[in-house]
Amino acid sequence: MTKGLQLHTRALSRRSFLITVGATGIAVAFGGLLQDASGASMAPAVEGGYRPNAWLTIAADGTVTIMSPASEMGQGIMTTLPLLIAEDMDADWHKVRVVQAPSDAEKYGNPGFYGVQLTGGSESTRGYYKMLRLVGAQTRKVILASAAAMLNVPVNELTTEPNRVVHARSGRSLDYGEVAAAGALPDPLLQVTDADLKPSDRWRYIGNLTLPRVDIPSKVDGTAIFGIDVQLPDMLYGAVLRAPVQGEQPETIDGAEARAVPGITHIVPLSYGVGIIGETVEATKRAKDLLKIVWTTSSRIRGYTSDRLLEEYRSVGRDLAQAGVSAATEGDAQTAISKAGTVIEVDYMSDHVHHATMEPMNATALVTGDTVEIWAPTQGPTGTQGFAAEVTGTTPDKVKVNTTLLGGGFGRKAEADFIIDAVSLAKAVRGRPVKVIWSREDDVQHGKYRPLEAQHVQVGLDGDGNIVGWRHRIVADSIFARTMPQLFESEGGHDSVVTEGAHFNYAVPAHQIEYIRRDNGLDIGFWFGVGVGYTRFGIECVIDEIAAAKGVDPVALRLELLKDQPRARKVIETVAQMAEWDRQRDGRALGVAYSDAFGSHCAEIAEVSLDRETGEIRVHAVWCAVDPGIAVQPRNIEALMITGITGGASHALFEQINIVNGEVQESNFDTYRVMRMSEAPDIKVTVIPTPEDPIGGIGQVGLPPIGPAIANAVARLTGGVRLRHYPFLPERVLAALNA
Question: What 3 state SS string does 312-340 have?
């Protein structure tokens, strides 16, 4: 998932650090792990203890329990965010235990998402970074004040080392546990500013190469609890049969055979389908298959055929007389292009793609009176509270969300449809929890896919081949019109997440970006990299086309266009050295691409070969250099880049959702093709930290450059054959070769 909101931080107030000694939230117990000599671990939630703020508790034995406010979906955020608090409070990482924060946006909301609890957009570390470091700094101040009173010494004579307050003059010291056991919290609370943050030359944990992720041990030993693992007393199971076409409703329901399945307790008509409740998963599955439903046929989605619409989008993009919403304007690009000696004018397109999380959509809900409790692998606890309240007719404050581990998210689990399933069925059997698990077919055929989109790019070149104007038109439906309508309207009909990445840092004198919405009714959603995943495809391939027209090396052209961007130049120069850019390969070629998405600089080079008989592309190796600003967890950044490159290569080569007359044609991994392990390239990553603030996002940074790098490599291998349509299916490659 991504978004087009500007990062902002908010001042920390007394309310933000409210001392709530007896009001700690209960998170999902992930299994009690023994203290690991390698560092912190996850743990069940605790109550009581020395609680200087809502974020942490210190026990008498020195254990520091820190809340993690974001959803852990394999990206390592459950380590990264608590680590920031631990750094500035001078905690001993070996004594830290991490607990998933409860659903409480007032305490644990992300400043980068306007204070809601939502994980996505590569925004978690960026959004929480400053705030959590200040939490740690204030905690340290509180501990020092408590210790000063206990030792009867001036607070300015005290220093800290991990989990210990030291008074060097007398040789005395107190462990944090001793302070917790006997110390009094200062009143009023002590305030902190940026000046109280630990300087980078004293960091112990930020940038540390040896700290392991806290979620890994439980995933290895089997104690980790994902949403699909939740088990509660007296629990029922649910399944929902959805219409084959979005927007249709059940007209008649024949549930006689379904009701006869042993273990089935309820059949529940819903506005969007039919729910089944039973004693076992197997019973609900059998009953679901036996339902006989006559669906309405009035949905506008019945006219949705993706291939036809994509051609329509391309035509709209080419129709320059059809104005779009201005996403950005720098100079007069249209006039500059009209006067240019050479004009490059090309189209780039991408199909719908599915999230394909390994853990399908699921949620468990319990409705009791006017209260609701939910256990779910959700990226958005705040949104979950709102939707559950709407379904049950209660208020969000009476909805408790237990966020479990996520078996993949990619923006899909920021949606609420699977939550609504569980709450709707639990409402029908108040007092008993109901777990709903989507089948893989449900998941593939009822997703919230990345938008279908077409891009039309015009670039004007002067007589020396220099860029004088760049016009970029993006045609797609809107995600924000459905998910954040007020934001969409306030931006004048511009969807900044759909056009994200189109604004680049190349030195171009005149640059215009336009968004043209095509509303065809299908629900589209946030996807791994969303807009930047396809806008950088168009941009980086066009840069290579300009290099070819100018007769210069593609790496050299990028360095020229980024002459005032030292961090960008550094990653490009580094990756070129890593890949030995100038070395010739027999039967293979290299392609390069660069991205500054999410505030991080990333350059990638792909080595590919091509079977000209079949049209199949093979990616053998990928080199990557990335500068995220402050590298909080360098090893994890490397892992995330590998994830993004693998996923990006998969979507560039294989992944597509085809819709014909409103019906999704793919249904499982036999028809929704993803990259296999045997097809994964060898990947080498170099992390180049820049110790400065603001910090860049990293979760989705690896994806945008890999597709264009592959396409550019194919062009170099074939003497200029350009691939302009994601995914690069063999038949599309052959068509390009034979054009």
Answer: HHHHHHHCCCCCCEEEEEECCHHHHHHCC
- Return all residues near 97 (Cβ < 8 A) that are at least 6 apart: 40, 41, 42, 43, 46, 63, 64, 65, 66
> Tokens 């129709």 identify what position?
319
Torsion over CA of 450, 453, 458 and 464, rounded to 10 degrees?
A: 40
Q: Which residues pair with 627 in a beta bridge?
A: 601
Angle of CA points 688, 528, 496, to nearest 5°: 95
Structural domain contains residue 442: no
8 A C-beta contact, residue 65 and residue 137: no
> Taking the CB of residue 217, how many other CB atoms lie within 10 A of it?
18
- What would the 3-class secondary structure string for 703-733 be? HHHHHHHHHHHHHHHHCCCCCCEECCCHHHH
Calculate Rg over the CA atoms of the chain: 27
Cα–Cα distance, 413 to 432 (Å, whole number) = 24
Check whether residue 411 and residue 466 sit in a common domain.
no
Residue 572 lies in a domain: yes
Give, in degrees to the nearest 5, the angle at Cα 336 between 330 and 337.
Answer: 110
CATH code where residue 431 lies: 3.30.365.10
Q: How far apart, in whole angstroms, are the C-alpha atoms of residue 43 and residue 45?
A: 6
Q: What is the model's pLDDT at position 179? A: 97
pLDDT in tens, 696-724: 999 999 999 999 999 999 999 999 999 99
CA dihedral 226, 231, 237, 242 (to 10 degrees): -10
CB atoms under 10 Å from CB of 720, counted, come to 11
Label residue 189 by pLDDT band (50, 70, 90).
confident
Joined together, the tokens standing for residue 486 give 């007020």
Backbone phi, psi, residue 546, to 5°: -65, -40
Alpha-carbon distance of 449 to 352, in angstroms, equals 6
In a domain, 162, yes or no: yes
Type of residue at 147: A
423-444 pLDDT tens trace = 999 999 999 999 999 999 999 9
Instruction: Give the 3-state secondary structure of residue 428.
Output: helix
| 491 and 542 together in one domain | yes
Question: Where does a domain end: 193, 221, 249?
Answer: 221
Domain count along the chain: 3
Give CA–CA dist 662/622, Å, rounded: 38
The C-alpha atoms of residue 342 and residue 546 are separated, in whole angstroms, by 10
- 600/708 same-domain check: yes
CA distance 672 to 263: 33
Retrieve residue 420's tokens.
């609504």
Contact 265, 429 (CB under 8 A): yes
Give rounded-to-5 percent helix, strand, coil for the chain: 35, 25, 45
> How far is the CA of 191 from the CAs of 66, 203, 284, in angstroms?
20, 22, 56
Does the pLDDT value for residue 57 go beyond 80? yes
Give the SS3 label for residue 150: helix
